[in-house]
Amino acid sequence: MLQSVLFDIDNTLLLKKPSIPELVFQQAAPSTPGLTQQAVEKAYGASELWQGRQIQKENETGVKMPDQEYLQNVFWVYQQALGLADELAKPCEASLYVGDHPFDVLCAHMAHMPALWLPVNQFMAIPEGVEPPEFTARSFPDAGKILREQIFRGEEEGL
């Protein structure tokens, strides 16, 4: 059963409506009493800031943080921003990584996470040597449908 979803969608898609934080709020609000749109936007901003600082640090030192540790840190940022305590501390195998670039699929698999790929255009392809994603969506509504199916599938199976 899916216990968490991690979005890694490029900032250019934030210009589209609804935005990533708006979509995350729409998906999460029904099952998270008290969650606000502003809290999700704050968590998204904090995550982007942490990731930018981490990339800068890696570029300066030449030392790359392991993928699983990187994802745990991103979860921690969301935990702090949304006040979710340990609710986001889920095993990678019980999470789903949603990304819009083939590199996102590679990162998900390196962190032992299934991937939902949402390519930004019809011409993007997963390159040879990269394991294909478990799921592919062509739009945000398609991605939402896949997420709902995976969450409810786990509940039906009693997981």
Keywords:
single chain; 159 residues; 5 helices; globular
Descriptive report:
This protein has 159 residues and is an alpha/beta fold. The chain is globular. The longest helix has 25 residues, at 37-61. The mean pLDDT is 75. 48% of the residues lie in helices and 9% in strands.
Spell out the blueprint of helices and strands:
Elements: E1 4-8, H1 20-28, H2 37-61, H3 67-82, E2 95-99, H4 102-110, E3 115-117, E4 135-136, H5 140-156
Parallel strand pairs: 1-2, 2-3, 3-4
Summarize the structure.
Helices cover 48% and strands 9% of the residues.
Rg result: 15 Å
Outline the biggest β-sheet.
Answer: 4 strands, parallel
Q: What is the molecular shape? A: globular
Encode the helix/strand succession as letters: EHHHEHEEH
**Straight-line distance between termini:** 6 Å
